[in-house]
Specification:
224 residues; alpha/beta; Rossmann fold; six-stranded mixed beta sheet; binds adenosine-5'-diphosphate; transmembrane transporter activity
Length: 224
């Protein structure tokens, strides 16, 4: 089953063509690296895949819905339910507990508070941080902070997790443990698309889509 489809997607910022006709699809259960040098269009692609930005041209389908047909309200609901985001900078609320940070991943999904906290504890269990639920982020390590952010992305059981340089702020040993977690979550069924400029990291993932100057230049390891 296809969970994400891009067909001839373009994105212009004024005179700058950040994406110049990108087409690929991702099936449920895939683990995909989007790899390319700085300025190649990876972040723009992440924003368009995540429905944070509308493309200038072409079609983006998430879970079969053509994003262009949805108004802003329907789009934010689709985003809340279908897409989890993980960023290099973690973006945790410093004054909230780990559990509250994770539960916040459900704020816009129309889930009641008690259920949000129950699901947050489940997600923390999956990332190995159940014993840190009542801590604030300043009392945990960088790797643990990224685990919290990953739990927040997973808490609503999204169809796609989009991770933007998830190990970019971590030392290599901690980064490796986050990569191991990403593999483990994928083995448990999560569909994960990871953006990276690091060819070595990309090489660890089964499928690699390489972008250059707003275009896909190779797509290797795609399951037949
Ligand atoms: P990457 O993530 O691979 O570094 P980006 O998607 O950030 O690439 O950028 C692709 C191109 O689009 C670059 O030329 C960049 O300068 C341009 N770009 C990205 N975002 C904007 C923006 N908001 N306004 C203008 N130009 C942008
Ligand atoms: P392939 O050559 O396997 O068809 P690509 O066209 O994506 O796939 O080429 C990149 C390959 O080269 C990856 O499979 C990756 O394992 C390897 N590679 C490239 N750069 C590095 C690097 N810095 N460290 C480790 N492996 C790398």
């Amino acid at each position: 089953m296809t969970v994400l489809e891009l067909d001839g997607v373009t994105k212009d910022y004024g005179d700058v063509a950040a994406l110049r006709g990108v087409s690929f699809s991702v099936r449920r259960g895939e683990l995909v690296a989007i790899v390319g040098p700085s300025g190649s269009g990876k972040s723009t692609l992440l924003h368009v895949m995540g429905t944070l930005e509308r493309p200038s041209g072409g079609v983006v389908r998430v879970g079969g819905s053509d994003v262009a047909r949805l108004d802003d309200r329907a789009l934010s609901l689709l985003r809340a339910r279908e897409i989890g985001f993980v960023f290099q900078q973690f973006f945790l609320a410093e004054h909230a507990t780990v559990r509250e940070n994770v539960a916040d991943g459900l704020l816009y999904a129309g889930v009641r508070a008690a259920e949000r906290y129950r699901l947050a504890d489940e997600a923390l269990e999956r990332v190995g941080l159940a014993d840190r639920a009542t801590f604030t982020p300043n009392r945990i390590s960088g790797g643990q902070r990224q685990r919290v952010a990953i739990a927040r992305a997973l808490v609503g059981s999204p169809s796609i997790v989009l991770a933007d340089e998830p190990t970019g702020n971590l030392d290599s040993a901690t980064g490796a443990s986050i990569m191991a977690l990403i593999h483990e979550l994928n083995a448990d069924g999560s569909t994960i698309i990871m953006i990276t400029h690091d060819a070595g990291l990309a090489g660890q993932l089964p499928r690699r889509i390489r972008v250059l100057d707003g275009r896909v230049v190779s797509d290797t390891g795609v399951t037949p």
